[in-house]
Write a structure and sequence with these properties.
Number of domains: 2
CATH class of the largest domain: Alpha Beta
Distance between the termini: 16 Å
Number of helices: 10
CATH architecture of the largest domain: 3-Layer(aba) Sandwich
Strand content: 25-35%
């Protein structure tokens, strides 16, 4: 059967690392307060000149090198981001230009923290229809640009970064590698729980992030557990068959609660929220690349990706690496 197979990954972080102690100098908070409630110990913040497209390009180049694929072979680029370089054109087209692979399909996907899952599902569908043979799927954010740095309840939670994977269509056996199942959802009724208070057609300004944390936490645990069950059922596997879960890195307590709800061992959860904080659409591919490069995720492993973000949007995808 024809499947979309992940053949390479890469990631990129800004140069500036900001610890909780340094955050405590900017807002009324402490390292203990942040760690206890979120598990976050540090985050990376983009400096002037570091943009969503520059981080995305670096992650994409590393993914291409890892896959042994030349940029000229890429026929599809989907970039998930809520913090594009410009209102338009799509930041994916800037990455395409940076890589020098003209003429293929390139566009952005905006589903906030679920963006990479939406992009991965879209790329998988397009590849399997023959739109392209090889694709770059990227999650990249400079969330620091839309934070209210006087709001200690939100500004300590987020960071900047990018992650990317190369997808290639291959004819594989039933037990071979590739994306096995993906489920995506949205519910706009809850948009006021996590949003940015600006935009081109409303205020004419970028706006700042606003969040009601307790309500988001409650919805996240329920929605993520439900969608993971959907994907497992669709793929015909049990939760015990999954080698690794690579979740959206929003909050360590959400990761623990979701694992408990599914009866999963926390030893199977890839956690990087302590290192990177919440990098929105970048968090899943960034965590995946870290776990691949440090040897945890190996060829043949069954890996579950999952995320929930503003909208609300949420989704999960199961892949054999």
């Amino acid at each position: 059967m024809i499947r979309s197979v992940i053949t390479g990954s890469g990631s990129a972080l800004p140069e500036q690392c900001v610890t909780n102690a340094e955050m405590a100098k900017r807002v009324d908070t402490t390292d203990e307060w942040i760690v206890e409630r979120t598990g976050i110990r540090q985050r990376y913040i983009a400096a002037e000149g570091e943009t969503t497209s520059s981080l995305a390009t670096e992650a994409a180049r590393k993914a291409l090198e890892d896959a042994g694929v030349d940029a000229s072979e890429i026929g599809l680029i989907i970039l998930a981001t809520a913090t594009p370089d410009h209102t338009f054109p799509a930041t994916a087209t800037q990455v395409q230009a940076n890589l020098g692979c003209r003429g293929g399909v390139a566009f952005d996907v905006q589903a906030v923290c679920s963006g990479f899952l939406y992009a991965l599902g879209t790329a998988d569908s397009l590849l399997r229809t023959g739109m392209a043979k090889k694709a770059l799927v990227i999650g990249a954010e400079t969330f620091s640009r839309i934070l209210d740095w006087e709001d200690r309840t939100t500004c300590v939670l987020f960071g900047d970064g990018a992650g990317a994977v190369v997808l290639e269509t291959r004819d594989v056996a039933d037990d071979g590698p590739g994306i096995l199942a993906t489920k995506l959802h949205a519910d706009g009724e809850h948009k006021d729980l996590l949003y940015v208070d600006g935009g081109p057609s409303t205020t004419g300004e970028v706006g700042k992030l606003r969040m009601k944390g307790r309500e988001v936490f409650r919805h996240a645990v329920v929605n993520l557990a439900d969608v993971l069950k959907e994907v497992l059922a669709d793929a015909g596997v049990e939760s015990s068959d999954v080698d690794w879960v690579v979740p959206h890195q929003a909050n360590a307590r959400i990761l623990d609660a979701t694992a408990r709800k599914l009866g999963l061992s926390t030893d199977k959860i890839v956690v990087t929220v302590d290192q990177h904080a919440n990098t929105s659409a970048a968090s899943v591919p960034l965590a995946f690349d870290v776990a691949r490069k440090d040897g945890r995720i190996k060829q043949g492993d069954l890996v579950m990706f999952e995320a929930m973000g503003g909208g609300f949007t949420w989704g999960a995808s199961l892949a054999r690496i």
